[in-house]
Each structure stands twice: as C-alpha cells, then as structure tokens.
Design brief:
There is one protein chain. This protein is an alpha/beta fold and about 230 residues long. It has helices spanning about 15-35, 60-70, 85-95, 115-120, 140-155, 175-180, 190-195, 220-230; strands at about 5-10, 45-55, 75-80, 100-105, 130, 170, 200-205. It has a seven-stranded mixed beta sheet with strand order 3-2-1-4-6-5-7, with helices on both faces. α5 runs parallel beside α8 (about 220-230) and α6 (about 175-180) crosses α7. The longest helix has 20 residues, at about 15-35.
C-alpha cells in the first residue's frame, strides 16, 4: 500500500476545485476497487489532498473549508497574500505525508484521472515523472511561453532536451523533502527538482480545456515567472 499526496494551488477556482477533488477521489476509489479484485487484494492506496489558497479574491477558501470538513483526507492551507503558484506548491509540500506527491492544477486542465499513468512510469525507476501534452488547450502566447521557458531551462539549469515539464507531475517523497529545504524567496520548482535529481521521466497525458474562466497568469505574470526562473 502506498499513500499519495495531491498538492493543488488554488486561485479563482471556487467553482472548479470541488470537481477536481471529486475526480481525484473517484480515481483512487476505482484503482482500489480494481486492486481488491486482483491478486493484490488488501493493497489499496491511501491518499491526502492538500489545497493551498493563494489569497484568491473569490470564495475558494470557503469551499476548501467545506471540503476539509467533509473529508478528513483533505487539508487546507490559506496564504496571507498572493505569493504565486510555485510558493503555494512549496507551502503544500511542507504539509504532505505521502510516499508519492502529485502536483496538479485547480482548473481541470490537468487530468487527475490519469494520475496512475504518472505513478506507473515512476515505478519504472524514476524519481520524478512529468505528464506532457502532445496537444495543448492553451492560447498562443502561453504555448510560446512554455517553449521559451523550456529553452531557458535547458540553457541555464540543465533541463534535458528530451524532457517536457508541465504543472502535472509526480515525485518521490525524498525529492519533496529536499525541495522544502530551500530557504530563499521566489522558488522555481523545476530548478529545485533538477538540483535534486537527474532521474526524470515523461509520460503522455491528455490536456483538457479548463472547466471555466481564463488563466490566472497575465502576460506580465508569465514574464515575471520566467525572469524568476532565469535568476
């Protein structure tokens, strides 16, 4: 049996985060049902979901509190100001207790139902596995930004050219333990991952349309993110 921790930064997602959480729970339940019918009965996985409110201006914190009251496997963290996605992930990582840690988005674009694709790939011997998308449901400037970020990471922090990084990925706990030791402001998660291990993998997953709304990243926000990664 393994314990899986899901960490989700939440911003303007009061109408979507419950759907994402329900998909995670359904995925774990279906996996455990299949396992219980097979040769490894009794080896069901446990889970926890860590939801980090990145000082969202909507009512997502109220939804998080409701979810955590309904399910003791859900933890809520409320940041006092908007620190950004990477800092919100760091706050979530500090609260996990699972053997595997999966990061994903709050808008439904990252397919929680395919979490075991990442875990199965990880169990081939990797330390970190990123989902990658052959087709992205993003605006042109976001696709250009992802390409620019990839080239920057290859040149500056040693990202393998064959590796595609996304916001949907799984790590072994010892990698998370290493990441949260980073003592400085403005963390850049991919850089911290590459500093901790070179044993990295990819697996193709679906990239969906977001359930509602637009990306929380403005062009200015994306530029600031790239500068932060560069520096």
């Amino acid at each position: 049996m393994a314990k899986i921790s899901f960490v989700i930064p939440c911003y303007r997602s009061e109408n979507t985060i419950r759907t994402v959480v329900d998909e995670i729970r359904a995925t774990i339940a279906e996996h455990n049902r299949l396992v219980s019918c097979g040769a490894f009965a009794g080896q069901q996985d446990d889970y926890e979901i860590v939801l980090v409110n990145d000082c969202s201006p909507d009512g997502v914190w109220n939804v998080i509190k409701q979810l955590s009251a309904e399910d003791t496997s859900i933890k809520g963290i409320c940041l006092a100001k908007n620190f950004g996605q990477h800092s919100a992930l760091m706050a979530g990582y500090a609260a996990i207790s699972g053997d595997y840690v999966i990061s994903l988005d709050d808008d439904g674009q990252t397919p929680a139902s395919e979490s075991y694709k990442l875990i199965d790939k990880l169990n081939e011997g990797y330390d970190v596995v990123y989902g990658f998308y052959r087709h992205r449901s993003q605006h042109l400037f976001r696709r250009f930004g992802s390409w620019t970020n990839k080239k920057m990471a290859e040149a500056i922090i040693g990202q393998p050219k064959t590796l595609n990084t996304t916001s949907f990925f799984v790590m072994r706990k010892f990698i998370v333990d290493e990441i949260v030791h980073y003592p400085h402001p403005f963390p850049y998660i991919s850089g911290l991952v590459f500093r901790a291990t070179k044993n990295l993998g990819n697996v193709e997953v679906e990239h969906r349309n977001r359930l509602e709304g637009e990306s929380g990243y403005t062009i200015r926000g994306l530029i600031n993110l790239w500068i932060n990664g560069f520096t």
